[in-house]
Amino acid sequence: MALSRVCWARAALWGSAVTPGSFVTRRLQLGRSVLAWGAPRYLFPRQLLIQHFWTPKQQIDFLDIYHALRKQSHSEIISYLERVIPLISDAGLQWHLSEMCTKIQRGIHPAIHDILALRKCFCNHPLGMNQLQALHMKALSRAMLLTPYLPPPLLRHRLKTRTTVIHHLDRALAKLGVAQLTAQEVKSACYLRGLNSTHIAEDRCRTWLGEWLQISCTLKEAELSLLLHNVVLLSTNYLGTRR
């Protein structure tokens, strides 16, 4: 399948600097498990039973309910971004972030260059990965489909790990090409990255995933907090997501 080639490509990109041991293998298999059925495997310990006994409509309804819970965190995250604007030292970055929050609250889907203009905001205090506050990390965890019920150090570690894994997969996927993925793989890849793709046409999912990859593959490791927040920034107002 297409994503298995992504995993091999990722290993090739890492080269000899990283030996793909059991930890790396498990992380890369996350992509394959995500594309096997709807939402990520780690969400559903009884996934095989659900897939076997539930009708396709029941599975979609379940994903809709889960995504509705996930979206509750979006407004919390945008509100937090607005609150920390005065703490950003660069006046230009303050303006860009304020404009971004205003656009999202007005229902506007931000452009790629608007998001990338914020990359320096997410390197240091207050939005750098190591400076995020506990309540904000809980909201981000819900947006990333991770449990928020952990101590702050563990929340930070899981968010950093999950974002790094997605970043690696993004680079490999960009090298492979979105066109190589099946329709179900594209929808599931979008779902993992924050978009409720169950009711969005395949071509729109491919367009959104292409936008995500353009942003992700531009970012450096120190800027991965922006990729984490992109789960909200890029998905909240995308066409077809409002039901």
From TrEMBL:
Residue ranges occupied by any Letm1 RBD domain in the UniProt entry: 69-243
Keyword Membrane among record annotations: yes
The protein's name in its UniProt record: LETM1 domain containing 1
Example of a GO biological process term: intracellular monoatomic cation homeostasis
Subcellular location(s) per record: Mitochondrion inner membrane
One Pfam family of this chain: LETM1_RBD
Keywords, in A-Z order: Membrane, Mitochondrion, Mitochondrion inner membrane, Transmembrane, Transmembrane helix
Domain of life: Eukaryota
Residues passing through the membrane, by range: none
Gene name, Swiss-Prot/TrEMBL: LETMD1
InterPro entries with a match to the protein in the record: LETM1-like_RBD (IPR033122), LETM1/MDM38-like (IPR044202)
Gene Ontology CC: one annotated term: mitochondrial inner membrane
Biological source species: Propithecus coquereli
GO molecular function, one term: ribosome binding
Bilayer disposition of the protein: Single-pass membrane protein
